[in-house]
Specification:
Elements: E1 22-26, H1 30-38, H2 40-54, H3 68-77, E2 97-98, E3 101-102, E4 106-112, E5 115-123, E6 128-129, H4 130-136, E7 147-150, E8 154-158, E9 167-168, E10 177-178, H5 180-203, E11 208-212, E12 219-220, E13 223-226, E14 229-230, H6 233-236, H7 248-251, H8 259-268
Antiparallel strand pairs: 1-8, 1-11, 2-3, 4-5, 5-6, 7-8, 9-10, 12-13, 13-14
């Protein structure tokens, strides 16, 4: 890394003034939309497992338990929204609903007081945790490490802060900061989550995937670069010290069918 090694690197994370690249998964025909609607419960259930497996984009309104299926059904049944005629009646945003907005929390390794620890972060710029928001009624919810919204017929994933970058170059410091120690613990989990999430979407009828390189060269279609390559969590998990292993990765099993996604990639060539 070319950045300067300093202590407490998490305190140098910075909120972005604009969206930092984005990933969009589309359902752009009637049959695809209908398939997603008809399999809404299964998709949301699989998504909850996936989010908890990697600790990325954790649902606010449903927690891991032995009765997730029942919780998903109840969540869907209690939806009182009236959807426009051309919108999918698909309720994954309800997983994140908090007051008048959506609450995005991910498990992020932070470094404070020269100690690296795992925290459920809502705001990477101010290092606001999920507990800060829930127990202190804190509405300062900005700079989510990563956020996702389902619109009429597509998911949109983007970032509000540079917490996943291995180098930090922002106005919190007059030098380039080496963020690699925490990024190594966080970024591969995001990359594996993104890959599996896209596979899951195509398993349930998605028709297209788009990557918009809006600003940063260290973000690619496959995820966020660590150094000059994409690193996935399964490639490094066993190399990590036990205290830095995100244990649900091995404990939670998610069965994915990548048939549709492979077919999409072949047809895209």
């Amino acid at each position: 890394m070319n950045g300067n090694k300093i202590n407490n690197t998490s305190e140098y994370w910075k909120e972005m003034d604009y969206d930092v690249s984005s990933y969009t998964v589309d359902w752009n025909n009637k049959n695809a939309k209908q398939y997603l609607e008809e399999n809404e419960e299964d998709f949301i259930y699989q998504y909850i497992l996936l989010a908890n497996k990697y600790g990325i984009l954790l649902p606010h309104n449903i927690k891991m338990s032995d009765h997730i299926r029942e919780d998903v059904v109840n969540l869907i049944k209690t939806d009182k929204n009236i959807y426009p005629e051309d919108w999918i009646a698909f309720r994954i945003n309800k997983l994140f609903r908090y007051k008048d907005g959506l609450l995005y929390n991910s498990y992020i390794y932070t470094e404070k007081n020269s100690i690296i620890k795992l925290e459920e972060i809502v705001n990477a710029d101010l290092l606001i945790t999920y507990q800060d928001v829930i127990f202190n009624n804190n509405d300062s919810i900005y700079a989510a490490p990563v956020k996702m919204t389902f619109f009429q017929d597509h998911f949109y994933i983007t970032f509000c802060a540079d917490a996943f970058f291995d180098e930090l170059s922002n106005d919190n410091s007059d030098i380039v900061v080496d963020n690699s120690e925490t990024a190594y613990l966080n970024t591969p989990r995001f990359n594996s989550f993104l890959r599996d999430f896209i596979i899951l979407c195509f398993q349930y009828g998605a028709t297209d995937f788009e990557f918009d390189d809006l600003e940063y060269k260290n973000i690619s279609e496959q995820g966020i670069l660590f150094g000059n390559e994409i690193v996935y969590y399964e490639d490094i998990y066993d190399l990590l010290p036990e205290e830095h292993q995100y244990k649900p990765f091995k404990e939670i099993k998610v069965e994915l069918d990548d048939t549709n996604y492979k077919r999409y990639l072949e047809n895209k060539k």
